[in-house]
Every structure is written in C-alpha cells, then in structure tokens.
Amino acid sequence: MVGGIPAVSAPGRRAIGVAIPVPDPHGSYLQARRASFGDPLAHAIPTHITLLPPTEVDEAALDGIHAHLLRVAHTERAFPIRLRGSGTFRPVSPVVFVALAEGIGGCERVQERVMAGPLARPLPFPYHPHVTIAHHLPDDVMDRAFKELAGYGADFHAWGFSLYEHGLDGIWRRHCDYIFGDGAVPAPG
C-alpha cells in the first residue's frame, strides 16, 4: 500500500491506504526480515497486501470513504491466502516481495471494488498483489532478500481489510478494520 510518502501537511488533507494485514506470526516475522535488510521503512509500514496505495484525500471525504468501504466489506467473504517464495519488480521498480500462490483472484476482486467510487484513481502500474520485503535498497541487498526468502511460505485467511493513515511522524497506522460480511471496527490499539 502503503509506501513511504511524505506526511501530509496541508490542512484538511489526509494520506490513507487500504490493505489486507498479514497476521502474526507471519506479519511480524516478515517485518523483522525487512528490517534485517536495512529497509528504513520496515518499522513504519505494517506488513500487508495493498488494495489502495497511498492516496491523499480531503478530510471531508472520509465519511463517504468509510461508507464505501463498509459496502465493499459487507458483500465479500473470507478467502485463503498462501504466500510462497520471493519475486521482484526490478528493473521496472526497485522492489523485492513475497509472492502470493493463492488468493490472487480474491485480492484482485476486492482491490477493484475498493478502488471504485470515492477512491477511484489511476495506478502507475498494473495491480499485482504481493508483500513487500525490500524497497529502494542497494542491488546486492535486494538480491540477498530475494534469495533468503525464496523458500518462504505462510498460509492464512483474509478476514477483511484495514484502512491505514499516514501520521505526521511517518508511521502508517491501522485506523479501522472492515470485516468481510460483517462491518467495521476500530483497529486494535
């Protein structure tokens, strides 16, 4: 989602993103691995699968965005995610990631629905669900990340998605969870 963009300083504007959180112990493990590669964003970005990349919105639009995300979540159902191995977007984009072996179709369907209505906007690249583990690092570090996570695997269910907000301190925090088939709840913490 949710890459490193400058904190929004304009009054009345917020930087948001929408993503499927990767649950623990998988999420904390991958975040620690990202930190071990020296990625300065490792502790600023919770481990996730992006549905809406960082997007600046007017604060006045947040109620409509919330209603839109509730509608999307209400009509969806949980689906399995299977993470297997590593991949890269290089040379197009300096990213190494953990790949999805199962759950791609579910992510694509939910992403398309999330990015409709008040969140519709063009993307710079075609959507490809993944979990970033190294971003904008030296090539040798990117190569090491790719090799070290080539055999990684984890399975979990996507229970819904979360709305994240980029704080003035540069940290992305879960603001609200949208549970498939159910509704929304404040995010933990």
UniProtKB/TrEMBL annotation:
Q: Which organism is it from?
A: Actinomadura bangladeshensis
Keyword list, A-Z? Ligase
Q: Under what name is this protein listed? A: 2'-5' RNA ligase family protein
Q: Which Gene3D superfamilies match?
A: Cyclic phosphodiesterase (3.90.1140.10)
GO MF terms here are: ligase activity
Under SUPFAM superfamilies, the record lists: LigT-like (SSF55144)
Pfam families for the chain: 2_5_RNA_ligase2
| Domain of life of the native organism | Bacteria
